[in-house]
Every structure is written in structure tokens, then in C-alpha cells.
Amino acid sequence: MDGVSLQYLFSGLTEKKKLELVFDLGNKTNKKLLQKGKELKNFISEWKIKLSQKLNTELNDIILVNPKEKDGLCSLDLLHNKSNVNSTINKIKSFNEIKNIEEKPLIEACQLVMDIFDSAGNNQDGGLAIGEKRGGEDYLPPIGWNGYGLKVIGKYDYGDDTWLNFMDKDGVFAVAYFGLSNIYGNKNNLNHFFNEIFSEKALKIGYEQTYSNDKDLRNPSKKCGNGVYLFQDPKIAENTAGIIDIDGVRYKILLMCRVNPKK
Description:
Layout: E1 4-13, E2 16-24, H1 28-37, H2 40-54, E3 63-70, E4 73-81, H3 85-92, E5 98-103, H4 106-109, E6 133-134, E7 137-138, E8 146-149, E9 174-179, H5 187-200, E10 215-216, E11 219-223, H6 234-240, E12 244-246, E13 249-259
Antiparallel strand pairs: 1-8, 1-13, 2-4, 2-5, 3-4, 6-7, 9-13, 10-11, 12-13
Helix pairs in contact: 1-2
């Protein structure tokens, strides 16, 4: 879309986070559990009990999925409430039988194509630039979201990257957000979506044109018409984003865009 450029992908978890636990199957305790159960599903059941006791939570709250065995190791994904992630990690680290534990980011969970991302632009909380402006408009940062930088240097505005600047000066574009629909709610569709917008350098006009017949506030005598809906406030954009379920973890995805204030 003319005058709109991408900058970030922001992900927010609606209910649970995903932690990858790696078990050393050569460990004495794990060997006993495997011999006792004789099947991996029984090994998982035993660890659900141990984790529920360690985390002081109900057994049904411990969800272990996606078991993978390789080279004497077994990895399992633990889904848990996002409010106490650091406490959960610290408690689980006390188990000698668990070789490693780490949070699985959206990019890995969804197996998104890595060559569209630029890790130098990653941002944990959307920045704290409260009260600043971009392109003469108020900048409202997406606090609490995890941001993944996209490869956009030299990609828009005929290679002039002034639009991307963090200072409010001439040539800088304003910030707006796009909430991703849940029609992209699987790994293949997400990858297709990002490949499409990067190859065409544009967001496509969708089918659901909710506001097309509403009055255009800039010119009340006209209707908004068809287009891509962007919002200055990330909280409003969040309300328009659909829930995307990836292996039992529910995400919402926002795209931070830059909008040319002259167009």
C-alpha cells in the first residue's frame, strides 16, 4: 500500500507461554522412570506429577506436548500461565534431571522464515518512548509486547531510510499498528502471509471491510471506503487482531507500520 511501510512484528500471548524442557535420558532418575513406564507417555505422566508438586499447582494445569527424542535427550514443551514465567523457570532449574529449559519465542514456535527478520531490531517491551512523536503524530508504544525486527533497511521510500528514524523530523513517518487476522492461524498461512507482503512490499486489502461505509473523519462528506485498517493506538489494534493458536499456545500478532503523513 502506497505510503505505508513495515517496521516490526509484535507478538503477545493471550493465555500461556511455552517453555522447552530438555531431559537427560541417561540421568539415573529418568532411567528409572523410563524403565517403570516402559513408554514415553508414562514418562511424561510421571513428570507431570513431579512438576505439579514442584510448582504447587493442579495436575491438569501441567500441559506437556511435542515430545522429541534424540541422542539420549528428550525435549518437551511445557505450556503454563504467563504471569509467573521467571518463578517457574527458577523452580524447574532445581531439577538435576532436566538438562536445559528455555522460553520458546514466536518465531521458533511458528517456524517463521528467518530471512525476513533482523534481530538487531528486536524489542522486548515495545520501547518506553512515552510522550514522543513520529511524523508529527503521537507515538504510542506497544508496552508488554515482544517485538521482532524486520529487514526493512533500504526497502521502502526509494531506499531513503529517513522514514524509519526515531526522531520527529521532516521525512519521518508516523507509527500505526495492524492486527493480524486469525485466518493466518497456522504455521503455513503465517509464512505465506509474510512472504507475500515482503515480495510485494505491501499489505493487501482484506475481505472484511468493517468500516468501509463509515464517515471519513478527515472529510465527513466521504466514506472511508475499502482499505487496510491501521490504528495509532496498539490497544485498539489488539482488539482487531484474531487469536492464533500454535501448538496449544494462543498468540496475537501486531505489525508496527510507518505511515507517510503526507499521503
